[in-house]
Amino acid sequence: MLLPRPILFSLSIALGAGVPAPAFAQAGAPIYMCVDEHGRRTATNVRSEMKGKKCERQVDGPLPAQAGTRPAPKPAVAPSPPDFPKVGAEAQKARDGIRQKVLADELANEQKLLEKANQELAEGKAPRNGEDRSSPKRLDRITDLEKSVQRHQKNVESLQREIGNPK
Predict the structure, then answer these.
(1) 28 and 61 in contact (C-beta within 8 Å)?
(2) Most exposed among 35, 57, 100, 113, judged by the fewest C-beta atoms under 10 Å?
């Protein structure tokens, strides 16, 4: 079987890159990987193109699985062993309630810290006695206060997200 030149070229690129060859090359003719005197690698099934090159048989018969195929999916969660401890529905509800209360308490505390950080930032932006608006000390202080505000804002957002995702 002779493959047209464009097909042969794409086949040589596919085999050279370690990619499975396309379905049309599965017709049964053996595929050879050849190296010419300049070290260029090509794949072919045409005997006349093998002259003067060192060729090794690569594929005989059907090719490996196509690039688009996927292995069978594994189960998302492995079943637990029979002797694994189980939690009753009421106990789990109680745990979930405690978790929600802890998260709500953390959120309230973090919101207080955010308010305090915002107040400190507002106060820190005002120049102190004898301090220039562009002094490095003042700018460093403002940068630290802004980072503190951002950290507390991220914490509040994370806690709100966690509260919104019941387990």
Answers:
(1) yes
(2) 57
Q: What pLDDT score was predicted for residue 53?
A: 86
Give me the residue label for tokens 């529905």: 89
**Three-class secondary structure of residue 131 per DSSP:** coil
For the CA atoms of the chain, what is the radius of gyration? 34
pLDDT digit string, tens, across residues 116-137: 999 999 998 887 787 788 888 8
CA distances from 9 to 4, 15, 42 (A): 9, 10, 8
CB-based contacts of 29: which residues, under 8 Å, 6+ apart?
Answer: 1, 45
Percent helix / strand / coil, the chain, rounded to 5: 50, 10, 40
pTM value?
0.48
Dihedral, 108, 113, 117, 118 alpha carbons, nearest 10: 10
Asked if residues 30 and 62 have their Cβ atoms less than 8 Å apart, the reply is: no
Contact 43, 15 (CB under 8 A): yes
Give the number of residues written for the chain: 167
